[in-house]
Automatic annotation (TrEMBL):
Residues 190-205 have a biased composition (Low complexity). This is DUF7065 domain-containing protein. Residues 190-217 are annotated as: Disordered. Residues 27-191 form the DUF7065 domain. Residues 206-217 have a biased composition (Basic and acidic residues). It comes from the Bacteria. InterPro entries: DUF7065. It holds the Pfam family DUF7065.
Length: 361
């Protein structure tokens, strides 16, 4: 029997995932906050459409929260999206669910593994809304792991994988073909547990949270540590070219350049991990919404290969009133690629940054 890495095994960025990682993992000590996720994304560039299917399973508690949504330039908030549905804390109807072949309860989407760690079929249907998704995900490469114990993967086991995504979207009765390159990810770790007493320093002011003070005030607010800021970007022009990266915004400099500490560079069909010491990103925000609008990315991999990418957001979803997830059009190496910017904020932190971006005195 093929098993996941044994307890006590030293896991590094080079440790491969195993077929058993397509399945749920036992929760250490039956941790009630143990969570496993499955996420699938797709896009239709000609229509500026992005789409997600995402589920978080709390296997110890026997529940799942799932959501499916599709967005385009016509609207960004849940009530304005082309499609949005979320169901929270649904009891799992199977006491021993198998993530390799599962239909999520309460009308959720289904996932069926066709080839371990490589090929999957994902389906969802909402007949009342004349809405349907059928996706076939064919992985371009083995899932990628990043250095454990570094932000944002302090406790998480996490994989990212580029795939060729084909299928069909039925949107308000209109049938749209899907043929793109996009990302799936999975993670398993405790999530949502209360912070231990004393975990947040008392009496710390906002300026104490900024590692490199200076520059525009809105950028200084953006760089505050301890706010739960995550920014995740990717773009691919096919199976042979593109990139994926996590930005460490809190470690950025006063000029607005943020280091990238996880991810890959793909060129000529060859993947390499990013050089964390030289890869960086600079983001420019829309002065009214505060959402990402334009981005420059300078990537170097561990073998010294370089790629400069420039991206523009073309449509957004703002789910929680903070930042947004955007469909992005990228240019790199003389090619056009498509992907996302996942710009995640606590709503109050985002509101402070946007107020500074819009200040007139």
């Amino acid at each position: 029997m093929v098993r996941a890495a044994a307890p006590g095994t030293v896991v590094t960025a080079d440790t491969p995932f195993l077929p058993a990682d397509d399945q749920f993992h036992p929760a250490p000590d039956d941790d009630p906050y143990w969570a496993e996720t499955t996420w699938w994304s797709f896009n239709i560039p000609e229509r500026r459409i992005g789409g997600w299917l995402h589920a978080t399973f709390h296997t110890t508690r026997g529940t799942v929260t799932w959501r499916v949504y599709v967005w385009d330039p016509s609207g960004a908030t849940p009530q304005d999206l082309r499609y949005f549905r979320m169901v929270t804390d649904v009891p799992l109807d199977n006491p021993a669910p198998d993530l390799r072949d599962i239909a999520i309860p309460a009308g959720g989407f289904s996932v069926r593994m066709l080839r371990p760690l490589r090929e999957y079929q994902i389906e969802f249907s909402d007949p009342a809304a004349d809405f349907e998704i059928r996706l076939h995900f064919d992985g371009v490469h083995d899932p990628r792991r990043y250095t454990p114990g570094e932000p944002p993967f302090m406790e998480h086991a996490h994989l990212d994988q580029l795939g060729h995504v084909t299928g069909e979207l039925v949107l308000a009765g209109e049938r749209l073909p899907i043929d793109c390159y996009s990302i799936r990810d999975r993670s398993w770790a405790p999530r949502g547990a209360p912070r231990p007493a004393g975990a947040t320093p008392s009496g710390a002011g906002d300026t104490d949270r900024v590692r490199h003070p200076g520059g525009p005030r809105w950028r200084e607010i953006e760089r505050e540590r301890g706010r739960g800021r995550i920014q995740y970007i990717f773009g691919h022009a096919g199976a042979d070219a593109g990139f994926l990266a996590f930005a460490r915004v809190a470690d950025g400099d006063a000029a607005g350049w943020s280091p990238l500490n996880h991810g890959w560079l793909l060129r000529d069909g060859h993947f390499e991990l990013l050089d964390k010491t030289t890869s960086r990103m600079k983001n420019y925000r829309h002065p009214l919404t505060g959402w990402s609008a334009h981005m420059q990315v300078r990537l170097t991999d561990v073998t010294g290969r370089r790629m400069d990418a420039e991206g523009f957001t073309v449509s957004h979803i703002c789910e929680h009133g903070g930042g947004s997830t955007a469909l992005m059009r990228w240019e790199f190496d003389g090619r056009i690629g498509w992907g996302e910017d996942q710009d995640i904020w606590h709503p109050k932190h985002f509101a402070r940054m946007r107020a500074a971006l819009q200040a007139v005195h």
